[in-house]
Design goal:
Mean pLDDT of chain A: 97
Largest sheet of chain A: 7 strands, mixed
Order of helices and strands of chain A: HHHHEEHHHHEEEEEEEEEHHHHHHHHHHH
Radius of gyration of chain A: 24 Å
Oligomer: homodimer
Distance between the termini of chain A: 46 Å
Shape of chain A: globular
Number of strands of chain A: 11
Structural class of chain A: alpha+beta
Strand content of chain A: 5-15%
Chain lengths: ~600, ~600
């Protein structure tokens, strides 16, 4: 009943018309051959794969869920393994990977578009290959040559999948408490023993081997986060030819029943003297894992972007078709028994809210992916550094802002259906359930907010934030003189000025009382989210204004959504700043026992 | 693993200390014997029943769901029928019912407290008896003497349960489109034929008979809403002694799979020449049904209040126990491996948000229930009228504001748990899924907002709203001179002034363009919600200030939550008014085909 049309046109608008990634990539030797034609071709093929092969599995797989069959065997829902086989055969896992290990070496901006579409098609399915990519990045950055040669080609081809094993029953956010132990063996390997929970794609029947990246403590490790090391622990130990050999001592003890992403196995993994190898330096495991976590955080933002898009498409179609009540300003479809509900202002408000979050987020996330390409591949070190800084600053924003909005937006999509939205049949409620986890995993959104304000903004005295502010100012200066841009530029310039003052105020208060950081952080992150989205909406509006007489109604819609964003969504910042400014006292005054 | 402690102390605070319902009820002959002792006794017993008998069923019943066994047989989850038997034996269904039909005649304020606690214990279970009460109210107001004598005693005792059969596949909000037909028979009965969907508690094995109140059209009925009549259609036709006799032609064809309230059967009901009797006048069925719908809308607000309370209690307990990270301002539990997460400002922000919504809503809903008692039982007609007006004005607010907040608050409760919140085991995610339907049924929250602004505020030129405003002004005038009340009274007075201007502005715009109503309505309802909650929070703060030196820390907590509400939640109104003021153009500009 549900449908998914890959939003190729809007992706092309963002990549070619707004960000001009073709030119930007052309300046990088690694991507010199990437051009518009190639990008469009990949988008088309990727969209076809996602909508035709993966999307049809999404709802039945949610109904069926995963099955834990004893002896640690876990079966993914019907059709998942076959779709994964097709995915590998078509070479999709190799898209952005290093050619040295079998990858196609395409830029992140393209990979990002593919990720969005895969998540629209099925977040639960996409998590199986999604985690492999994280394991690939981590081993590539920190593994020994031997480990890289052994594992990377298999992860790149998709023959093997990966996991991240961090959480234990008593520690999630606070990894310093973790207890899994690794005992060194004479041959240089380690025996890993402990209990990990919430391991997504920890066990399944879609690939011939599973490569676990596991945080554990060495016997002599200091306590806390400075005593954590990273190990690679395969499900099957590679034999002399690098093929899956002996079964290793790691077993899935249970899969969790949960609110959403039913089709992805969330595993309790027991390590009982499992053989593993150290990745990176001893006691520096958290550092090595951060490579994987940062990529994963952007990936989570893309999960919500994908869910918002598909939820929106179906809600909009429903709103155009469902006949119910007459427009308050007189019948719009007098020949029908009632008007389609899209005539009602509040239905439009819900749909436009979704559109504004989606299209703004797509521009933001694409730009961030381009920063990742620049950081990886630009020839000029200072350009690479600036891109690294933007990535560091805005990774918590793309994670938390997109996923908070993603939950609200999918819930609005569901609301458009009225009672039918609550019924499984229509598919709308699944997007809400799936979107909910994105606010939690890979660091809760509260943790993202602390990371942004406490670490990314305050630790360098706002230097990185000012660099983003300079981009905004540049746009304001260039466009501020064009009357037709005033409705976009004025509120953006106003917000940018307020953010500067607001950041300084919090910084001053935090020097007196560190709790002021935590008291302001969540509101602060949303304010920065609006600054970023406002910047991209203004850039998009500029392009759309230039082309509004082209006859292509795409630009007309873009301008309408831009106007809606500035008029109806950005005003939230007024409330957020007022709330944050009220300070820590109203939060900290009450005794814990009175809660 | 989850727990529920009936919030008796806070209920007593609201009923006795803030609203002084004892005095108010004492003035009504029907409730002259109701006093504090009686109220407290009922609250205690009700709390015990809810927490001990109903609450333990909630999670297993959600897992098990209802079973449709063919031949129209539907089984409620294990234990539901037995709990319902105990509920009836203890006389709980009779609590607020008319003594003429076997009721205890207690006031709505007490019934409301019971409803809140039942919903904390299990919303899905509570919907079985909850719908009976609506059917009782409707038949009592509009049934013939014969129908009343036949059906009311059975509904009051709980022997029979009731349903509301409005929705059809092609019509929910727009009942004017409905197609179910009723053919008059020679004996004065009707044969009802048609198809109804989303019938909560439409079929089950908890009671010996089910009384459907069904909207249908007579053969000669005009089209639209003025051609709808109401019929009572029992599952079993009463025999000569009023006992269940012959099976009637109404059958449950299917139960829906849905996001939440799994333990309540949402039925597709087929009427195939089922025998029914007219309730109220022909073609005035919608009018008769409105009695039921208004009570049901307040009931839905109470569902979310109940869910927020139990979700909060468990999240707060988790936050006091879960050790993770150190406080930013230095260790608070140095003897433990980490601090309990309640030391973190953002965890407190999430918990205090829930508390502020819960306690403010409890005061609001209790006051509204008292208005219902006044409307029913006060001797002075003008006092009854004013109470009726407050009920009419604020019913859409208690429905939509409490349920929007209820979804956000239960989601915040879940967020406190981190990853554990997403796992079924902890129970937190069920409250989110259950809370989601409350924004939809009994009129979507968008419809409530239109009802508030378009009908309740604009149709009488703001007269009813000004009457509520007079209560606010009275409080502002009395308390405005007390310095210690300034932090509560100043923002309330400020908001009250703005609401007046804001309402007039929208009224003026709407005269030019009716779409301005729909464009402002949802934001408007939230603003009014804050005006109402701000009023009750200020009243509660006044009482708490008076007693803050009593040594009872309850008042200390109350003041802390009041401060939090005004500092952190009420500022939302700034954004809402700015968004609403942007008008209809940004919503209506885009062509439907561009969505």
């Amino acid at each position: 009943m549900a449908h998914y049309n890959p939003p190729i046109r809007d992706m092309q608008f963002v990549l070619h018309e707004v960000l001009d990634v073709d030119t930007a990539l052309g300046e990088m030797p690694a991507h010199g051959e990437v051009n518009r034609e190639l990008i469009d071709q990949v988008l088309e093929e990727a969209g076809k794969f996602c909508s035709e092969v993966v999307f049809p599995l999404n709802r039945p797989a949610d109904e069926q869920g995963c099955r834990h069959e004893g002896d640690g065997v876990v079966r993914a829902p019907d059709g998942f393994a076959d779709a994964y086989r097709q995915y590998c055969e078509a070479g999709w896992p190799t898209l952005t990977c290093d050619p040295d290990f079998g990858g196609q070496g395409l830029p992140h901006v393209i990979g990002m578009a593919m990720q969005e579409m895969l998540n629209s098609a099925s977040q639960a399915w996409t998590m199986y290959p999604g985690l492999s990519h994280g394991a690939y990045e981590c081993l590539r950055a920190h593994g020994t040559d031997e480990l890289r040669q052994l594992y990377l080609p298999k992860l790149v081809s998709g023959q093997w999948t990966g996991t991240m094993c961090l959480t234990e029953p008593h520690c999630g956010t606070d990894l310093g408490l973790l207890r899994t132990r690794a005992e060194p063996q004479d041959d240089g390997s380690y025996l890993v023993t402990g209990n990990k929970i919430f391991i997504s794609a920890g066990e399944h029947d879609m690939a011939e081997n599973i490569v676990h990246l596991v945080l554990a403590r060495l016997p002599d490790a200091p306590s806390g986060t400075r005593g954590i090391s990273l190990f690679v622990v395969p499900k099957f130990l590679p034999d002399a030819n690098g093929n899956p050999g002996q079964r290793n001592g790691v077993v899935c003890a249970r899969i969790e029943e949960k609110m959403g992403i039913h089709a992805n196995a969330t595993c309790v993994m027991n390590y009982d003297g499992a053989t593993g190898w150290l990745v990176g330096e001893a006691n520096r495991g958290l550092n090595a894992m951060f490579v994987m976590m940062n990529a994963a955080r952007i990936g989570v933002g893309l999960q919500s972007l994908g869910l918002m898009e598909v939820a929106y498409q179906n809600a909009a179609a429903y709103a155009r078709e469902r006949l119910q009540m007459r427009s308050l300003s007189g019948p719009k479809a007098p020949d029908k028994p009632a008007d389609p509900i899209i005539v009602h202002p509040d239905v439009r408000r819900m749909l436009l809210t979704q559109r504004a979050w989606i299209e703004g987020s797509r521009a933001f996330a694409s730009w961030l992916a381009l920063q990742a390409d620049i950081a990886d591949s630009h020839e000029d070190e200072s350009v690479r550094e600036q891109a690294e800084e933007m990535l560091a600053l805005l990774t918590p924003v793309v994670k938390a802002f997109l996923t908070d909005n993603g939950f609200a937006a999918t819930s609005m999509a569901m609301q458009v259906y009225g009672g039918h939205g609550f019924i499984r049949e229509w598919g709308a409620e699944q997007y809400v359930r799936d979107a909910r986890i994105n606010m939690i995993y890979e660091g809760t959104n509260g943790i993202q907010a602390l990371d942004l304000l406490g670490r990314k903004v305050m630790q360098d005295g706002g230097a990185k934030l000012r660099k983003f502010g300079a981009l905004v100012r540049e746009l304001v200066e260039t466009e501020g003189t064009r009357d037709e841009m005033a409705e976009f530029i004025d509120p953006l310039a106003d917000l940018a000025g307020k953010v500067e003052k607001f950041s300084m105020e919090i910084g001053m208060k935090a020097m007196q009382n560190p709790d002021e950081v935590g008291a302001a952080s969540v509101d602060y992150l949303r304010v920065i989210g609006h600054l970023v989205l406002g910047y991209f909406w203004a850039r998009m509006a500029r392009v759309a204004l230039d082309k509004k007489d082209s006859g292509d109604r795409f630009y007309e819609a873009k301008l309408a959504v831009a106007r809606f964003y500035f008029a109806r969504l950005m005003p939230e910042t007024a409330a957020l700043m007022r709330s944050a400014r009220s300070g820590a006292d109203n939060l900290m005054a009450m005794d814990a026992e009175l809660f």
